[in-house]
Amino acid sequence: MTEPIDPTTLTVGVLGGTGAQGKGLALRWAKAGIPVIIGSRAAERAEASAAEYRELTGTDHVRGADNATCAAEADVVLAAVPWESHAETLKGLVEPLRGKILIDCVNPIGFDKKGPYPLPVEEGSVAQQAEQLLPESRVTAAFHNVSAVLLADLDQDEVDCDVLVLGDDREATDVVRALADAIPGVRGVFGGRLRNAYQVECLTANLIAINRRYKVHAGIKITDLG
Amino acid sequence: MTEPIDPTTLTVGVLGGTGAQGKGLALRWAKAGIPVIIGSRAAERAEASAAEYRELTGTDHVRGADNATCAAEADVVLAAVPWESHAETLKGLVEPLRGKILIDCVNPIGFDKKGPYPLPVEEGSVAQQAEQLLPESRVTAAFHNVSAVLLADLDQDEVDCDVLVLGDDREATDVVRALADAIPGVRGVFGGRLRNAYQVECLTANLIAINRRYKVHAGIKITDLG
């Protein structure tokens, strides 16, 4: 028997918390009663976003910090930085992230006139790059396929989708699934080992293509799970 | 205004129609009134499977042939061969597939003690390999993520999932979506250009991981599409 995980006992840090995906998740977690630290390269920018998120959620447990402080003071850390600055950001955070669960939600996707397309990742996936850069952290991958627009629209009580949670550390993926389940409408589903992260990271390109064709904010659900 | 597509006016060929995915789709299409030609390397083996499928579906419009005859006589052709024989099979079918819609559903996935994992594909994706080998065919990619087990279980009236249909030829993807819609419970959804096929092909590894963890036959649905 394992104790159920109460995500409100965890402080979640959001590296790149001023961007769209980081904002959406920070808002939903704050609203669910989870303390959040917004990280950014510049502490002032992080604090400005944190003030905005406190206002939007009507809560007081969102604060801002530079990325290093964010990583050091949080229990679980989400990497929501652009793919272009992923490696550089994590390289500077080896110490503060030691022993901690890192959730990587970064999509290696490029855009041209024909729309979105997957970018190659030498390490196999963005999450595996994180694993190589942070060998003493507990790296997971999740939250790639949930619409930032729907997350940030707090007028919508629920965000109806599943979040695939990948990782080789069962306990870490259970914590991340609890953080997914904390968002109304969202269900965290174990989605495989980290070596299966690339296709989940890149599936967002297909969701963007669907959004353009059908004028929606697509996500995914896993069928037959009840 | 375009005419709605009536899939029962098309004869569908299934290369590798004796395998699990080919069988499941052939059964569902036959049951939906669509004439099906089962292709295999050996015509006798194809005819033996066709006889079984006629029996299972209670229909008479399933027949078997060697792959070349299957490709020549069908209007639309599904490639459901193992990844290992994908290139070799298609190389021999350039002529019979000229001008035709090819639907590629092949998953480039390996297995080891730790489970399923994606295999690299030099051309970017299996579907793009098909496109390179068949420059005068209309290559699409679809039906990667639908459970062969559920397809083949005809006691289940419906297979509740979406099928992502990828391709750069709008009319071809519309035909393939109609072939998806012909299966009760299934919805064909445009999923992007062919260059976005790899992640859809490999997502089946995640679904297999989910099947193992949760003891299900997982598929996917796209949310927010109504």
Automatic annotation (TrEMBL), chains A, B:
Keyword Oxidoreductase recorded: yes
Keywords: Oxidoreductase
Signal peptide bounds: none
InterPro entries assigned: NAD(P)-bd_dom_sf, NpdG, P5C_Rdtase_cat_N, STEAP_metalloreductase
Gene3D superfamilies registered for this protein in UniProt: NAD(P)-binding Rossmann-like Domain
Domain Pyrroline-5-carboxylate reductase catalytic N-terminal: 11-108
SUPFAM superfamilies the record matches: NAD(P)-binding Rossmann-fold domains (SSF51735)
UniProt-recorded name of the protein: NADPH-dependent F420 reductase
Listed Pfam families: F420_oxidored (PF03807)
Tagged with keyword Kinase: no
NCBIfam families reported for this sequence: npdG
